[in-house]
Amino acid sequence: MAALAIGWWSVTITGFDLTSYRQCLTKWNHAVELMYQQCKTMGPDKCLVVRYEALVLRPRATLRRVLAFLQLPWHDAVLHHERYINQPNGVALSNVERSSDQVVRPVNLDALDKWVGQIPADVRADMAELAPMLSVLGYDPWANPPRYEATADAATERRPP
């Protein structure tokens, strides 16, 4: 869950108190709800929802879907972004950006469950109320650890509403 994983990667986000799970979940929910509503308003021909777990669990299928949506041809290079970081004609990264150490790595599963077991029981009990978008997006708000396989499979098979 992105709202919780950011704390472990030492990423700072303005307005987020990374010591408060409740506040992070509430702010995450608000941000995701806004994006989701904007995507629905724009329609499926203008906005594509891409789930992080779909990207890391099914990178080929997910990236094929993204490139098809963008009407771009498939190229295996998209599966190996790390080869093009800080290379001539590649992508330049800032040395001071804290998340750069993650971007230079191949797509990996590390962030999927790094937060599991860290959320206090009282916050887990209130998860559905703190972050109702979890349910809207098809997640079980009480699953800890979550069952990403089902949402990753669903995300690679369909487009957003």
From TrEMBL:
<dbReference type="InterPro" id="IPR027417">
    <property type="entry name" value="P-loop_NTPase"/>
</dbReference>
<dbReference type="InterPro" id="IPR026634">
    <property type="entry name" value="TPST-like"/>
</dbReference>
<dbReference type="Pfam" id="PF13469">
    <property type="entry name" value="Sulfotransfer_3"/>
</dbReference>
<dbReference type="GO" id="GO:0008476">
    <property type="term" value="F:protein-tyrosine sulfotransferase activity"/>
</dbReference>
<comment type="function">
    <text>Catalyzes the O-sulfation of tyrosine residues within acidic motifs of polypeptides, using 3'-phosphoadenylyl sulfate (PAPS) as cosubstrate.</text>
</comment>
<comment type="similarity">
    <text>Belongs to the protein sulfotransferase family.</text>
</comment>
<keyword id="KW-0808">Transferase</keyword>
<dbReference type="GO" id="GO:0005794">
    <property type="term" value="C:Golgi apparatus"/>
</dbReference>
<protein>
    <recommendedName>
        <fullName>Protein-tyrosine sulfotransferase</fullName>
        <ecNumber>2.8.2.20</ecNumber>
    </recommendedName>
</protein>
